[in-house]
């Protein structure tokens, strides 16, 4: 009985680029691998520059990003992902705008244009002063556009200042990052201007060559439960707005219940503690042990550490009102959250229990006020978001109007808003100039390393989070308890990177097929097979014909070395073992650019 052939793939540029999964997982393609390696070398400013290259909000992302890079990190195949976000926080603390140097960070951007652009006579109006709006302004300013940001509130920053509690994100970091972008003289910020009230959308269209909508989803929603209209039942986002932008509520005499299991729900719960609530209970359908909760591990651990009780897997049925006052939330245990097709379709048991409390907060969904777009001709989606006609440029149904951030694609991470702001800037530039839109590309070069000194010891180093200082939330409501790494810890943690851009490569002409490299490999990522045992499609046939004259000869005489990049720990033992020098460690060098 013939053995089944092994499916193999010949590596291409795209393969090598996709292999660095931390970069590919980042919406702005930040080269996390690059700044981790520079950190290990102690080149902190170079490392910061890499983190800032495609992201004008690098400092914010070093503090509160959802870190999709870590979800892609292949170190998690070994044990746990590298603490990429924490390393960025370490770097931005040393070289970001929060150091007081607002201008130098601007020079590290690789977005098209320059820090001192020549004005092109065109103007763009941006509605919304959050991450998407400021990123779009940053990238357009570099291209010479006169940009005006219309922000409804007295402070810019969007959810960075309205939604994220001050104890989790320093307002100085936010202010400095915004101020750095505002150094462009061709950016004007008009705070306190509410589009649709102080100026119409039509007036903006007449005033500017293009308009970018980036208003976000700042309105919370309620579930239509019995009792939800009671005066002590609130929208969580409204509570957070007051906590961050106005006066903090006095909850010292009220036990609090938060409905929802995402990061916003935990922000509400932890802020309720900071408003003096003596007991905070969080209830959500999703079950933590089944990885259904959308709240980040950091928020869940932080909530528990500060005293939030998490009732996961309990669905809300009714807000119980007794004698005109809220008595609590009636909940039932969840049978399932999603159906067999993965669609949201919760089922609850009949039995109920009461979570007692006097204040209830909803943190279950977000919407926006787009009344200013009525009769504008801009089409909407069934969900109430602005319809995107062209995903590459983020152009709407009106050619001169573009959209980005949550109002285009629903609630996502801050870094997704940054990415859409950058994409919209290139789309607007393309619309006005008639040129093809540019996007981020990588140039790859390959080099053999004459010496490779890494061993496998780094694999033994475990993931360590940043230190969290003890805090009394009610007494220290604005105290940020997170401590950035000291230098040596940052180097150690960055040194856990697998360095996915480095591979063993083999020179067939001098390989003696001794198999020493295979025998010494500690992760079993190498194996040697005869050509007749593998199936590499037409690409392998072409290569085999070039080497042996025909596929038949190759299958009779040839051998191939198979490499599994998901197992390789880049220890270099294969190259050290090779007696002829046929096996080398090779490095792929990447250069990010817009093209």
Please report the distance between the alpha carbons of the first and last residues. 52 Å
Largest sheet: 5 strands, parallel
Strand content: 15-25%
Q: Work out the helicity level.
A: 25-40%
Structural class: alpha/beta
What order do the strands of the largest sheet run in, or round the barrel if closed?
4-3-2-5-16
Overall mean pLDDT: 94
Please give the radius of gyration in angstroms: 27 Å
- How many β-strands, per DSSP? 24
Instruction: Outline the low-pLDDT stretches.
Output: none
Label the overall shape.
globular
User: Number of helical segments?
Assistant: 22
Fold and architecture overview:
The protein is an alpha/beta fold and 595 residues long. Helices cover 31% and strands 21% of the residues. It is built from 22 helices and 24 strands. The strands form 8 sheets. A 5-stranded parallel β-sheet has the order 4-3-2-5-16, sandwiched between helices. Helix 3 (32-40) packs across helix 18 (487-494) and helix 5 crosses helix 7. It starts with 5 loop residues before the first strand and ends with a strand.
Features:
alpha/beta; 31% helix; 21% strand; globular
Précis, in short:
The chain is an alpha/beta fold and 595 residues long. The protein contains 22 helices and 24 strands. The protein has a five-stranded parallel sheet, sandwiched between helices. Strands 7-14-8-9-10 form a five-stranded parallel sheet. The chain has a three-stranded antiparallel sheet with strand order 11-12-13, with no helix packed on it.
């Amino acid at each position: 009985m013939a053995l089944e052939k092994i499916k193999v793939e010949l590596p291409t540029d795209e393969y090598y680029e996709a292999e660095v999964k931390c970069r590919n997982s980042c919406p702005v393609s930040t080269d996390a691998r690059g700044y981790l390696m520079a950190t290990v070398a102690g080149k902190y400013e170079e490392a910061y520059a890499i983190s800032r290259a495609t992201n004008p909000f690098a400092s914010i992302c070093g503090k509160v990003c959802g870190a999709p890079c870590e979800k892609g990190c292949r170190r998690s195949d070994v044990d746990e992902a590298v603490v990429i976000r924490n390393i960025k926080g370490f770097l931005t603390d040393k070289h970001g705008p929060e150091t007081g140097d607002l201008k130098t960070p601007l020079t590290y951007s690789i977005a098209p244009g320059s820090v001192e652009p020549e004005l092109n006579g065109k103007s763009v109006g941006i509605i919304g002063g959050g991450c998407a709006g400021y990123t779009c302004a940053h990238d357009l300013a570099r291209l010479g556009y006169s940009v005006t940001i219309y922000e409804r509130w007295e402070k810019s920053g969007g959810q960075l200042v309205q939604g994220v509690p001050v104890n989790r994100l320093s307002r100085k970091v936010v202010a400095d990052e915004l101020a750095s972008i505002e150094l462009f003289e061709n950016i004007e910020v008009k705070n306190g201007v509410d589009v649709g009230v102080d100026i119409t959308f039509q007036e903006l269209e007449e005033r500017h060559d293009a308009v970018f909508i980036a208003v976000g989803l700042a309105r919370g929603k309620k579930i239509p439960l019995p009792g939800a209209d009671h005066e002590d039942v609130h929208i969580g986002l409204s509570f957070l707005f007051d906590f961050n932008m106005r006066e903090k509520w006095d909850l010292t005499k009220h036990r609090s219940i938060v409905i929802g299991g995402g990061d916003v729900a935990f922000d509400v719960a932890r802020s309720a503690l900071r408003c003096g609530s003596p007991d905070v209970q969080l209830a959500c359908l999703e079950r933590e042990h089944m990885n259904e909760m959308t709240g980040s591990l950091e928020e869940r651990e932080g909530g528990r550490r500060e005293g939030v009780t998490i009732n996961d897997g309990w669905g809300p049925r009714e807000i119980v009102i007794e004698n005109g006052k809220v008595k609590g939330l009636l909940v039932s245990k969840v049978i399932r959250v999603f159906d067999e097709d993965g669609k949201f379709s919760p089922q609850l048991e009949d039995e109920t229990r009461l979570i007692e409390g006097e204040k209830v907060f909803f943190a279950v969904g977000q919407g926006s006020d787009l009344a200013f777009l009525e009769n504008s001709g801009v089409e909407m989606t069934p969900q109430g978001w602005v319809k995107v006609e062209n995903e590459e440029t983020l152009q709407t149904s009106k050619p001169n109007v573009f959209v980005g951030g949550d109002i285009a694609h629903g609630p996502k991470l801050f870094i997704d808003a940054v990415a859409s702001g950058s994409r919209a800037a290139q789309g607007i530039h393309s619309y006005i100039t008639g040129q093809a839109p540019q996007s981020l590309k990588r140039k790859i070069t390959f080099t053999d390393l004459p010496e490779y000194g890494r061993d496998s010891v780094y694999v033994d180093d475990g993931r360590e989070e940043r230190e969290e200082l003890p805090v009394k939330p009610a007494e220290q409501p604005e105290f940020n308890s997170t401590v950035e790494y000291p230098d040596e810890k940052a180097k150690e943690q960055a040194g856990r990177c697998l360095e996915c851009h480095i591979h063993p490569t083999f020179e067939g002409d001098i390989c003696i097929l001794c198999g020493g490299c295979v025998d010494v490999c500690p992760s079993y990522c190498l194996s040697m097979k005869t050509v007749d045992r593998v199936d590499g499609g037409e690409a392998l046939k072409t290569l085999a014909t070039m080497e042996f004259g025909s596929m038949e000869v190759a299958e009779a005489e040839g051998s191939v070395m198979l490499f599994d990049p998901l197992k390789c720990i880049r220890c270099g033992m294969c190259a050290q073992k090779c007696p002829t020098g046929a096996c080398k460690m090779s490095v792929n060098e990447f250069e990010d650019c817009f093209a």
